[in-house]
Structure formats: C-alpha cells, structure tokens
Amino acid sequence: MSVLDSKVPKGPLKTKWTDYKNHIDLVNPANKRNIDVIVVGTGLAGGSAAATLAELGYNVKTFCYQDSPRRAHSIAAQGGINAAKNYQGDGDSTYRLFYDTVKGGDYRSREANVYRLAEVSGNIIDQCVAQGVPFARDYGGLLDNRSFGGVLVSRTFYAKGQTGQQLLLGAYSAMNRQIARGKITSFNRHEMLDVVKVNGKARGIIARNLVTGEIERHSAHAVVIASGGYGNVYFLSTNAMGSNVTASWKIHKKGAFFANPCYTQIHPTCIPRSGDYQSKLTLMSESLRNDGRIWVPKNMEDVMAIREGKKKPTDLSEDERDYYLERRYPAFGNLVPRDVASRAAKERCDAGYGVNATGEAVYLDFASSIQRYGIEQAKIHNIENASKEKIYELGAAIVKAKYGNLFQMYEKIVDQDPYKTPMMIYPAVHYTMGGVWVDYNLMTTIPGCYAIGEANFSDHGANRLGASALMQGLADGYFVLPYTIGDYLSHDIRTGKIPTDTPEFDAAEKEVTDRIEFFINNKGEHSVDYYHKKLGKIMWDKCGMSRNAEGLKTAIDEISALRKDFWKNVNVPGTTTEYNEQLAKAGRVADFLELGELFAKDALVREESAGGHFREEHQTEDGEAKRLKEFQFVSAWEYKGEPKDAVLHKEELVYENIEVKERSYK
Amino acid sequence: MNLTLKIWRQSDANDKGKMVDYKVTEISEHMSFLEMMDVLNEQLINKGEEPVAFDHDCREGICGMCSMFINGEAHGPDRGVTTCQLHMRMFKDGDTITIEPFRAKAFPVIKDLVVDRSSFDRIQQAGGYISVNTSGNTQDANATLISKHAADEAMDAATCIGCGACVASCKNASAMLFVGAKVSQYALLPQGQIEAVDRVKNMVAQMDLEGFGNCTNTGACEVECPKGISLENIARMNREYFSANVKE
Ligand SMILES: Cc1cc2nc3c(=O)[nH]c(=O)nc-3n(C[C@H](O)[C@H](O)[C@H](O)COP(=O)(O)OP(=O)(O)OC[C@H]3O[C@@H](n4cnc5c(N)ncnc54)[C@H](O)[C@@H]3O)c2cc1C
Ligand code: SF4
Ligand code: FES
C-alpha cells in the first residue's frame, strides 16, 4: 500500500472542484485573526497567495531573498498567460485547455488538478484586469490573444513581452494593499533555511536576514513554499542568479516527498552561449515562434561558409534552407511544443548543421513575417506599388510593436540587428516540471506544509506548454490554496500562537547555525562557483536534452564525488554577521549537489521517454519520444539520508476523461 | 582587454567607505558588465580577499535589482539598458572605470554597491494599487472596453522596473519619474479612476516623507532611465496632484 494519497475528490471531473469547495471546512473571520501563515516566496504563486490569505483575514508573513517582493523571478516571464476564455471564438473551452495541457505534458500529470487549473483560468484574467494589469488590446478595445506552442487555438493573453512583470506587479500591488493594512509583514532580503516541525506538523521556519546575518525564528500554523524552480542546478539557465532549490530541499529533508525531479524543460529559443565566463542564459520568448521561422542550411557547404563568415544567412535562397520543423511537423510547424522543438534543434546541430562557431545555434527568421505584414499594411494604408523598402519598413514596425523589447534585448547581447539578419538561438534549461509532491489540496507529505507554483510538481507532467506556468502560479495562489488551506486550518482555531522558544526551534536553529559556521571556518581551496559550474557541466552533459543509462550512472558517481570534495574544500570568504552573498550561495549550491544526484537517479529509474525526459534507449524509429504504459506514474522520492538511499513511492496516474494516445504533432 | 576599476568599498551602513583600485585582465568584449565583476570577484576570493557586494538577480534587465553608477552615470554609458545588460564592448583596452552605488538620502548603502531601496516599496504601499479583492468575483475581463491607445500608454508607464536610476541621476535625488510612472499607469486606465484622488496624494506624501528631493525639471532621470519612462509621466502626475487638491 502506497503512503501517497492524492486526495482527489470523487465525482465527475467537471463538478469535482465546485462540489469539493462547497463541502470544505471554513474558518470563520474572527478565528482567522488568530491564525498565522508563512509564505516563502513572493513570485506569482507566493505573492497572489499572500495577498489573498491576508485579505481573507489570516496574519501572513512573506519571505523573499530579493530586496522587494516585486523582483521575484516571475518578473522575467515574457510571452504570456493562457486562459480558456474563447474570446477569439476559435473553439477553445475548459476541456480543450485541459486536454492540451495533459497531452502537452505527455500524459504524466494528474487529471483532476489540470482540469481545475483550466476551470479557474478565465477568472485569472478577470482578476488581473480588475487590478489594472495593462494587457494588450485590439483596436476595438477588447483583449488581444496570441498563440503558443502545442495548441491550435489563440488563448494566450499578454502585455507586450513583459507579461510576467505586469502580472507580478498586479500581485505585488495586492500585497501592498495588505501590507498597508498590517495583514502582511514582508521580510525581504531573508532566506528560509529550514522548516520547523512540531508534533509532525509544519509550524514555522528558520530564516537568515541576508543584510545582518541574523538567524531568526518565525512560527505559524501553516507554511507555504512558493520558492520557484530549480533550473539553476545546471548552473546556466534562464533562471535568475539567485533561483534555488533550498526551500524545497529543506522541506524534502524533513519529510516532503520530491516528485519527478528529472522532468526539466529545455526551452528551444534562447540566445546561444558565447564563452566560459557566461553567467546565465537569456530566453527569447516562445511567442516569437508565432512569426519567426526556424531553419538551418540544407547544404553542409553553406554551413561552413556561414561559420567562416564567407556567406550570410540572408544570402541563402529559400530552397537552400531547411525549415526542419515545418518539414517534420506539418500540422504544428514552428509551433510544436518545446520538448519537440528543442530535440529537433539538437538533432540538426548534432548532425553538424549548427550555424555559429560553437556549432550550437539555429536561425529564427522574421523576414517572411516582415514581408507579409508589410504587404498587409500597404493595403490597409492604400499604398499602391509600395517599394521593397516601404514594405520592409511597414512590416518591421508591426514586428517591433509585437516584440520590440525582445529584439532590443537580443541586439544588446549579441550585437546584431534581428530585423535585418535572423536571430541565432539554441535550447537552454528553463523550467522544472518536477518539484515537491502535493495532493489535490496542494499539501505536501508534511501536514500543514504546502507547495505552490513552480515549486510543486502537479500540473505540467513531463513537459509544460508555453504560457501555462503563469496561469498555474496565479491559479494556485489566488484561487486554489486559499480554499484548501482553510480545511486544514479549521482544526487550528484553538491552537493559539505557536511559541518559538521550544526544543524543536532550538534544534532547527542549531542545524542552520552549524552549517553556516562550517562554511565560514572551512577556508578551503575552491570558490562556490567552481563547484556550481562543475555540477552544471555534469548535469548538462549527462542529464540534459537526451539521457542514457550509462551517462546517468556516471553522473551519479561524479556528483557524489563532487559533493564530497565540496564539503572538504569549499572556500567561503567573509563572516557570518554581514551581507555575504557567497555564504548564501554556498548553502544553495550544497543543496543543488544533493538534488542533482537524486535528479540523475530519477532519470535512470524512468526507463521511458516522456516529454522533456528523453532516454536514448526509448525512441521511435523517427526519433520521437517513446512513452511506456508501465511508467504511467509519478515518482515521489522519500528522503533517507544520502540521495542514493532515497526511497521511491509511486502515484499511479489514472486517465478517465482523456484517452491516452500517441502524442503526435505531425 | 585590461582595465583599472575604481570601486566604492564600504563594509556596512556605518562605515565611511572609500574608493579602491583593482585591475582585471583578459576581459572579453562579449562579456556583460556583471560578468566582468564576476571575474574580479572570483579573483578576490581566490586571493582570500572579500568580493565586491552588488545587487543583481535576473541579469536580463527586468527585475530592477542591479544598480551601479558607472563613470558618473546610472547603469553606465549605454542608453536604454540596465547595468546587467551593459556589455564590455562599450569600453576599450586600458580604460579606467569608476563604479559607485546609487546614491541618495533615501537609498542608504548596505554594503559596497548594495543600497536599500525599501523606500520605493513604502511609496507603493501608500497607494500604488487598486482596492479590489482577489477572490475572483470580478466582472468579465472584456466587460470594460479600453482603447488600444490607452492600454499601450498605460503599459509604457507600467514597464518601470523600480531600479532607482532616476533618483541616482537626479541632482536633487527626486523620485518623481518613478512615482509618476506608477500614478500614470492607473490614471490612464478606467479601473484606476475611483481612487485617483487619494492615490496621488498619498503616494506623493510618502515620497516626501522618505526624503526624496524636489523635481526641478532637469530631465536627467529620463536620459538614464533604462526603460525609457518619459517625463510626460511627471507632468501627468502633477496634473493629477493639482486636480486632487482642487477636488479637496
Ligand atoms: C525568462 C523566463 C520567461 C518565462 N516566460 C513565461 C511565460 O511567458 N509564460 C509562462 O507561463 N511562464 C513563463 N516562465 C515560467 C514562469 O515565469 C515561472 O515558472 C513562474 O513565474 C514561477 O513563479 P513562482 O511564483 O513559482 O516562483 P518565482 O517567481 O521564481 O518566485 C520565487 C520566490 O521565492 C523566493 N525564494 C526562493 N528561495 C527562497 C528561500 N530559500 N527563502 C526565501 N525566499 C525564497 C524568491 O525570493 C521569490 O520571491 C518563464 C520563466 C523564465 C525564467
Ligand atoms: S522610472 Fe526608470 S529609472 Fe526610475 S525606477 Fe523606473 S525604470 Fe528605473
Ligand atoms: S539584474 Fe535584473 S535588471 Fe539587472
């Protein structure tokens, strides 16, 4: 008998959530005042949850490592947010969004959670508009939409190329309203370093003030983890420099199971790396694939000529180009899902067709769109016999209006003008579908400890579709957790304040302090980044876009050895009682060194290909991922000391409302 | 290229602080400015010295965390970029580069190049929101039509990343561009009208309380703003403020 209970309510899929909400225990407003909730993270998930919980009447404490809640990494999301509004009248519906998401996730997500997500999606847009989020509008004043990969409808809402920023500022403004009312206390430049359990329940955290170095105890009746994803285990990713697994990993070590760590999304359109000094990778939004066409040269001579600078991409005629996505996937073309697009780019580059010096780049070309829009605009403005230049100018203006900030970002980094020459792109680590295991209530296997947003595992299966992380973060925070947490907290109305002068807090604090002191006193040989970079290389080479048993076994040994060396030889400058970024980083890398090994172990055990997890041993004849029925489960790992000793629990995935099919985008 | 860096070092808020010289070599022109700083820090750590503290996170120009005053300009010599987007190709071999924190009374130094910008948060808390509950019991998003023009203009104002370059560039350390952008976003949208009067008054009052200086229309803020927030936003805020006081 498995210890995992997903707590999915009975009843038909369509009414599950409503029925459940109608029967859930509530806490009356007067009692909410006596209940404290800690929210770790102020991104879309944590920010929206904190604001809503405070509005309901709970006393909320938020924590983030940046200097303001508004700077959480959700701010960087570019392209958009999905919602089944069917404003375009193109056949969208709750069911279709649900279907696309489950299929996009390669049938590795939990049906009931995904349906609920699709169900509340429309309301997110209403909420955000009411908050003053300036989504793009059409000329008639209605909300505009764009398309993202893996779907055949237009359901993505956006605010230029800064959708995440605008949504986060919306959530931050809702938080500010509650901070002003005294219902939220926000602890910025604070890092959570452990969870405190009392009688088996999560009752508080230990946090470090990153400015003074002080170690603080905070108690609450429930703890919500909204600390984002762990893509930085690869060192290079599109995540922010400070993004980390620490909060999730600490609760894992205290009893929260970690699910599907190996499901990582490698995003197809990022700016290729340029040198060893590189500190992070920059995403070029998937929305660009609405108008950009991806290609490499058909002939090897042209590849060589381009690399040597003897030819320019614009010199190649149409029939000298291989629009490989359009060729391989005529139905979805450039808008295939991310895992498919990334593997296809890797396939071409591995075959030698990469277009830059490193051989790891393909083109994303806007010339045909500029041309098409130009002709259209010339018609609209009644310009007869428009010159080539005029058409280009009119078309470029439209592309600029849609993607201006992305083009500018590209030009600043690469020093090339993407209006004139195609962009060069290559896949990069972007998002982690894996995360803390949660039940239908978003509770982890620690009672009273919840995980929301990218930190949990639940909705995206083995591959996330574009524009659905923002949707999930806000759904969890605004509309799901505030209900489900009430059911748990209704048993705490008489508990009273949780004291922090108890042996449980003493013990947790001591563990944290010991570790910090170790780092400062160790005075080893190598910097923290030295280890982080080494770990990143192992992860990228052996647990990256494609994986095989032998590589994964080597990765496990290498990571384990690297971790041993880290604990012997790491060098952390400075003291414990000051602003010390290296010290903060040391703790994060220490956790990545454990997670990395569990990641490889999970990938090794999963002997199938699904979504972003591609095992070379399991592919179809034409190189597509081959799923296996016997792996239709969630891998939830229980901590038992060393990552190699982790125990696997399986949550079987049952699909009653969707037919599990071969996932095809041809 | 090889460079000399003159960097502000200050161990904490109470320390007096001073400029210290460093040398870095073999810097590639493709590096970002912060990657060059990483090289310096790695060098310092390996020598057993304390690395230079600076704020940064997204490294793609959107979080507003990075904040260096480089050769006398907030975010350095390039236009329309944050410090993290500044590239070394803007400099040449042999250059001496001075690097200081964003200075203002309302932005006290925490350490080296790291400053405390929580005054910006408090201004937002004073009224930078629309009082709508987050329960989702709102009308349909398409129920109110908003002209594309108004939506686009509101969006332009809303792109402010709260970095504080405007304050650091202003000889009076005024925060008018930042506050103006926030007030404008709401002033341009129908959802923002209901609380318009209180919003502008409360935010301006908090701004004054935090010790930001007055605006004397020098326009330095607009020049250094990495997001191209225009002075029109200040004018709009002044109109809002004036009419709020008339309505009183
Ligand atoms: C460049 C980029 C573009 C993207 N574009 C899109 C898009 O267009 N559409 C889409 O749907 N998704 C997009 N995504 C994905 C999406 O942005 C993220 O998955 C989502 O925003 C994560 O939100 P979150 O609230 O879970 O976490 P985050 O926003 O990452 O927030 C994490 C929070 O936790 C805090 N924190 C972390 N660790 C600790 C700790 N130990 N102690 C205290 N606090 C801690 C941080 O300070 C922060 O406040 C994009 C992602 C990236 C990187
Ligand atoms: S107005 Fe410009 S300079 Fe000022 S905080 Fe906003 S983005 Fe930064
Ligand atoms: S680090 Fe985020 S804007 Fe520079």
From TrEMBL, chain A:
**What region holds the Fumarate reductase/succinate dehydrogenase flavoprotein-like C-terminal domain?**
532-665
- Subcellular location(s) per record: Cell membrane
Q: Does the keyword Ribosomal protein apply?
A: no
Its UniProt entry gives the catalysed reaction(s) as: a quinone + succinate = fumarate + a quinol
Give the Gene Ontology MF terms in alphabetical order. electron transfer activity; flavin adenine dinucleotide binding; succinate dehydrogenase (quinone) activity
Q: Which cofactor does it need?
A: FAD
Specify the protein name. Answer: succinate dehydrogenase
Automatic annotation (TrEMBL), chain B:
Q: Drop me one GO molecular function for this one.
A: metal ion binding
Query: Which superkingdom does the taxonomy of this entry point to?
Result: Bacteria
What Pfam families is this protein classified in? Fer2_3, Fer4_8
**What GO biological process, any one, is recorded here?**
tricarboxylic acid cycle
- Give UniProt keywords alphabetically: 2Fe-2S, 4Fe-4S, Iron, Iron-sulfur, Metal-binding, Oxidoreductase
Residue ranges occupied by any 4Fe-4S ferredoxin-type domain in the UniProt entry: 151-181
Give the family, as the similarity comment puts it.
Belongs to the succinate dehydrogenase/fumarate reductase iron-sulfur protein family.
SUPFAM superfamilies documented for this protein? 2Fe-2S ferredoxin-like, alpha-helical ferredoxin
Query: Which taxonomic lineage is given here?
Result: Bacteria, Pseudomonadati, Bacteroidota, Flavobacteriia, Flavobacteriales
Protein name in UniProt: Succinate dehydrogenase / fumarate reductase iron-sulfur subunit
**Which InterPro entries does the record match to this protein?**
2Fe-2S_ferredoxin-like_sf, 2Fe2S_fd_BS, 4Fe4S_Fe-S-bd, Beta-grasp_dom_sf, Helical_ferredxn, SDH/FRD_Iron-Sulfur, Succ_DH/fum_Rdtase_Fe-S, Succ_DH/fum_Rdtase_N
* Transmembrane feature ranges: none
Q: Which cofactor does it need?
A: [2Fe-2S] cluster; [3Fe-4S] cluster; [4Fe-4S] cluster
